[in-house]
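In response to the reviewer comment on reproducibility (Comment 2.3), we provide here a single inverse folding case reported in full, input and output, so that an independent group could reproduce the run without further information from us. The structure tokens appear first.
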């Protein structure tokens, strides 16, 4: 059997798995990579959109890309939502993204990481002061 036929046979074996198994496999990689599998063939086109988890763990992702992904996400149940960003341009969107995850039925875990630099920047630009202890004089 030629290498080309073996590769084709392996691909057809993987593609013949039920969506739930493919989605479980894809849940171990970043959402960006999972979306790329939709280019493999028509069978994979929408598999990523029903994954039980979304992982935006790329600090260079732009808000438009995340918003587009959330628009096409159709899972009935979300297990995990992971967001990591250090882009100041994403800060205005974070509440909307977390709200999206909270409104998905069955969400078990939401993890949102924002670079400490931007948290400090937000507090410095805020006009309100936050007391560090309850024993202020």
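Designed residues, in position order:
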């Amino acid at each position: 059997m030629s290498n080309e036929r073996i590769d084709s046979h392996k691909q057809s074996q993987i593609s013949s798995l039920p969506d739930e198994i493919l989605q479980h496999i894809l849940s171990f990689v970043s959402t960006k990579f999972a979306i790329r599998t939709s280019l493999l063939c028509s069978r994979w086109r929408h598999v990523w959109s029903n994954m039980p988890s979304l992982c935006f763990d790329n600090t260079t992702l732009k808000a438009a890309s995340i918003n587009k992904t959330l628009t096409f996400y159709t899972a009935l149940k979300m297990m995990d939502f992971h967001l990591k960003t250090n882009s100041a341009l994403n800060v205005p969107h974070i509440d909307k993204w977390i709200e999206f995850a909270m409104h998905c039925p069955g969400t078990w875990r939401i993890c949102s990481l924002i670079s400490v630099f931007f948290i400090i920047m937000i507090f410095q630009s805020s006009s309100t002061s936050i007391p560090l202890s309850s024993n202020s004089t």
